[in-house]
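Duplicate of #3305? Posting structure anyway:
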């Protein structure tokens, strides 16, 4: 008997993802991620198919787990190289302390991202080819648009690699489209 993964209720999952974005992502990733998460959850709020709902929730839980594990790995790496800390003596109830802590955590996130980019570490993960095979044309189109939006956040080497992958993805999508007959353009004169 295979063990089943416990699914988080959709609203709780939605909140946890946005919270993870707020805590672990740099501002430019957060803006993009929050908008995408909100749009996807809104788009799927009226879905009735239980299998589709389970797949949707499982994929978003995997995403949440990836963000949390990446953040932990990056935090451990950042701690080893230079340990930026927030003073535990700062009172969490003081508005000034909260503003200072927020500024420090923003600076920490930003410096962590800069370290990741400088070290050539990848942020995120490659999409499993089996998952790409299961995607509809609309989903592939959305993925392409997302990829275009995130291109400004990569190094030139990553952009070259993305261009190659993009060309392969477009070839794959073109192969799935049935060959169409050339449309005949007749020049019929309008009748009066």
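Output from current build:
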């Amino acid at each position: 008997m295979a063990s089943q993964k416990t699914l988080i209720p959709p609203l709780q999952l939605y909140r946890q993802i946005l919270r993870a974005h707020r805590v672990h992502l740099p501002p430019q990733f957060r803006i993009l991620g929050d908008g995408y998460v909100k749009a996807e959850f809104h788009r799927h709020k009226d879905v009735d198919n239980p299998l589709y709902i389970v797949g949707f929730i499982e994929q978003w839980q995997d995403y949440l787990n990836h963000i949390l594990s990446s953040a932990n790995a990056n935090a451990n790496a950042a701690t080893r190289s230079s340990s930026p800390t927030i003073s535990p003596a700062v009172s969490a109830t003081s508005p000034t302390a909260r503003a200072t802590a927020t500024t420090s955590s923003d600076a920490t996130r930003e410096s962590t991202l800069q370290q990741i980019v400088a070290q050539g570490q990848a942020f995120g993960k490659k999409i499993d080819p089996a998952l790409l095979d299961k995607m509809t044309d609309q989903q592939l189109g959305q993925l392409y648009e997302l990829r275009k939006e995130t291109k400004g956040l990569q190094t030139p080497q990553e952009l070259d690699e993305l261009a190659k992958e993009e060309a392969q993805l477009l070839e794959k999508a073109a192969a799935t489209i049935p060959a169409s007959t050339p449309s005949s353009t007749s020049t019929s004169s309008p009748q009066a």
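Confirmed duplicate; merging threads. Residues 44 and 137 are 17 Å apart (CA to CA). The mean pLDDT is 73.
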